[in-house]
Design brief:
The chain is α+β, with helices and mostly antiparallel strands. Helices cover about 35% and strands about 25% of the residues.
Amino acid sequence: MAVSWESRLNIIVWLTLAGLCLITYRLFQKSVVEHPIYAAKAESQYEVSRELPSKRGAIYAQDFQLGTTVPIAATEELFDISVVPRNIKDKKEAAAILAKVFELDEQDIFSQIDNEKLYLPPLVRGVNKKKRDEIVEQGFAGLLIERHNQRVYPENSTAAHLLGFVNREGVGNYGLEGYYDEDLIGKAGSVVGEKDTLGRIISTVSEVRPEDGNDLELSIDHNVQYALEEILTKAVEEYEAESGLFILMNPKTGALIAASGSRSFDPNHYSDIPVEETDRYLNPAISNVYEPGSIFKPLIMSAAIDYGKVEPGTEETFGKDVYVQGYRISTAEDKAFGTETMTQVLENSDNVGMVWVAGKMSNEELYNKLVAYGFDSKSGIELSGETLGYLLGLDNWHDINRATMSFGQGISATPLQLMRAWSAMINGGKLVRPYVVQRIIGQRGVAVEVEPEINEGVISEETSAKIREMLESVVVKGHGKLAAVKGYRIGGKTGTAQIASPNGGYLEGEFIHSFMGFFPANDPEYLLLVKLDKPKTKEFSASTASPTFAKMATYILNYFQVPQAGETE
C-alpha cells in the first residue's frame, strides 16, 4: 500500500525534531556538563608546569689562619651546550666557533651537526658561566644552552670520607651528604606558564619559588685536613702499609678538627671507583672495627686506678708469661720486665702486668667501666655509615676474656669509639659525643648552633690527672719516645695489634700499628690517633705510627701556635 505524501511529511518532521533534540542535548552535555573536562584539555594544550629545582646547601670548613670559612662542597651553576642543526644557517662557521671556544676538533663537530635534525645530545657538558657567556657572544642561530646545578668539591679528594658525595639523581650518599641530605637539598618549587608551539614558556600563570637548602659549617680545619692527609699518604708509602687513617679531635668538646683514611676517592668523580672497590666510600674512622691492642691498656689501667685497686707507683714483679685457664700469655718481646710500677707497665707495654691489673677487678667492675667509656654504643657522630664494635656480654665473661681485654684483644671498636673513650680518660672523666657540624645556617642567615654533648662521671678528675702523667712518661721513657715533639709535653701510647682471622684465631705475621696521643699533656686540647694497617717495613708501631704521629703533631702545634712548655727530658 502506498504511503501518502502527508504521512511522509509527518515522518520527516518527526525525524527532524528528534535530530534537533539530540543535537540540543549533545550541545548542552558538551558545553555545560562536560565543560570542565574540555576546558582542562584545552588548558593542557597551552599551559605547562615545570619544576624549579632548589639549590643544595654548601658545606664550609674552617681556616684558622685567616679566621674565616672556606667552601669544601658547593653547588655550581653549569651549562650543557648543544645545537639544533635544522636552525643553523652556516654549519661550517658554527663548527669553527664551537671548536675554538671549547677546544674541540672542528671536523668532528662539523660531522655531528651537518644534518637537519631537531635535536642533538649535548656537545659539551658542565660548562661554567664564563664559557657560557663566551659562546653566547660568539653565538649563531641554532645554539641551544641548558642550565643545571652540579655538586662540586673544590678541594677534590680532601676530606672525602667526611663529605661523601651526591649522585646523579641529586641524592646525598655517605658522610655528611648522606646524613644531612634533607637539610642540604631544600624544597623544589614549580612554575605554571603559557607555552608557545615549541613548548617554551612565554608567560607565567603561577609560581612557587624553591627553598634552597641549609649550609653546614664544620669544625674541620681545611689546612690541617690537607696537611695531615699528605703526611698519612707518605707514611703509608714509606712503611708499605695497605692503608691508614688519622683522627684529630678536641677531647674536651668532641669537635673533630681533621680525619681521613688513605683509601679515599674524589667525590667530583665518585663513579670512577671500580665496583669492586666501592668500600673506599666508607669512612674507616666509623665504619671499620678492629681489636685495638695496646692502646687499650691505659683504659684498663684507668679503671683499676679509679676503683682504688692500684696507684701509678704500685709495684709488682712479673715474669715473661702467665697462664690463664690454660692459655699462655706472654710479653710482646717474650721477656720478663721484673719489678715494675704501674707506670712502667705502660712504659714497657707489659701484657703480663696488664693481666695482673685487670685481675684486680671483678668482671662486673671492668664491664661497667667499659660501658661507661661507651664501648656498648655508637659514638653518635652525625655521619652516615657508623657501625658498632663488639663488647662481650657480661654473662659470657670468663677469666681469659678479662685477661685478653687487658691488652686490647677479644674486644673490638671503631677508631672513633676509641677516640671517645680516650677523651673521657684524659679530660677529667667526661664522655663527649664526637661531632663535625658546629653550625647549621638557613638561607635567611639564621644559624643553629650545635652544642657539645658531655656526660660526666666516667672516672674521677684525680684518676684522669694520674693517667695523663703516666702516659706522658710513656713518651718520655717508654715505647713512645719517637712520638715526642721537642719543647712540648706529649702523652700517648703505642699499639701493635694482632688481626683477627675470619676463620678464628689471628693472622700470622700481620699487624695493625697505631699511636694514640694528646697534647699539651697537662691540659689536652688535641687528641690524635694514627693507624697503619699491615705495614711491612717495621715490626712494631713504635717505629711507624709513633714517628708519623710526631710529624702530624709538629704541624698541628705550629699551625695553631701552641706555646712551648719547655724542653722534654
